[in-house]
Amino acid sequence: METVVVAFAGEQNGRRVKEILESAGAASCLLCRSADQVRRLVSQQRITTVVCGYKFPDGTAEELAEDLYDTCNVLVVASQGLLDLIQNEALFRLPAPATRRELVVSVQMLLRMGERLGRLRPPRRSAGEQALIDRAKERLMARHALSEEEAYRMLRRRSMDGRLSLADTARQVLEEE
Fold first, then answer.
1. Which CATH number fits domain 3-120: 3.40.50.10580, 2.60.40.420, 3.40.50.2300, 3.30.70.260?
2. Contact 104, 74 (CB under 8 A)
3. What is the distance between the alpha carbons of residues 116 and 2, in angstroms, rounded to a whole number?
4. 123 pLDDT exceeds 80?
């Protein structure tokens, strides 16, 4: 059974979604309450789908999805008014309140998409590349007085702007004086 990350700032919402998905046999679920927790789980495990609310204590679903773009699909479950605020067309949306069936079918569809994408995606980073990225984040944190999250975002933004891999961008940061 595939694993899905369920992430809502409110614990009750997350538990309810987890209960629905697991009781339907759609997926096993890992619960998170912040965007940073989701990022860590996705970087440590093979996760293809995240189901989340619109806002976290440390950012929005749209910001999270930007960071996870090449890793997994993100389904945002929120009121239509909040969903209308999302500008990223790559985000999947499910208006709340949603029926059990709508939620289960949506997640199953994303899991199938994730399976196909997983075969097309390049392999995950090597341990050496991850160490390089971690050192670059530390350098940016020290140089610019940033949090780890802010340093990662800066590194990711430079990577996208320069059309380079995260590891190549990390090398550039470490070569700078």
1. 3.40.50.2300
2. no
3. 13
4. no
Summarised one tens digit per residue, pLDDT across range 71-94 is 888 999 999 999 999 888 778 999
- Amino acid 30 reads L
| Residue 46 vs residue 115, higher pLDDT | 46
- The SS3 call for residue 118 is helix
The model's pLDDT over 15-52, given as tens digits with 9 standing for 90+, comes to 999 999 999 999 999 999 999 899 888 888 888 899 99
Q: In what order do the strands lie in the sheet with 28-32?
A: 28-32, 3-7, 49-52, 73-78, 92-95
Handedness of CA 26, 31, 35, 39 (dihedral sign): negative
pLDDT at residue number 22: 94
Give the angle 106-13-54 at the CA atoms, nearest 5°.
70
| CATH number assigned to the domain with residue range 127-175, chosen from the 4 options 2.40.10.220, 3.10.180.10, 2.60.40.10, 1.10.10.10 | 1.10.10.10
pTM for this predicted structure: 0.67
Q: Are 58 and 15 in contact (CB under 8 A)?
A: no
